[in-house]
Amino acid sequence: MADYEYTTELDVRFRDLDAMGHVNNAVYATYLEQARADYYADIIDVPLPEADTVLVNLSIAYQRPITADERVTVALGVGDLGESSIPMEYEIRTGEGVAATAETVQVVFDRETGDSRPIPQDWRDRITRYAQSVE
User: Fold this and answer.
1) pLDDT, tens only, 30-43
2) How far apart are CA 3 and CA 115, in angstroms?
3) How many domains does the chain divide into?
4) Buried-most residue among 8, 53, 115, 117 (CB within 10 A)?
């Protein structure tokens, strides 16, 4: 499991809840997306919509439900970077502990051709520097 060097806090919104009063399973993916967007903005210094990455893999292991009265923390760690791929591991946590773990892979792509392209060197440098600064 990766070290979770980055965290972001999220509120559970009423719209996140299902008929049983739990956060709907699909919303967990939205929490991951928000954590990714925060990471890209804060660490890579690129807004996620401008990052030219696509999500190619998403896996979530649910451990317990989240309810309306809980605050959510998403912890994120970046794994070994590939040529064009950025793997991330997550824990979705509340005051009650870990609610889910997840993994995603984003791939950097060329908007004109749709082909993958190498991760920009300045991104690699920022990701590496940040990870080293929190060790």
Assistant:
1) 999 999 999 999 99
2) 30
3) 1
4) 53
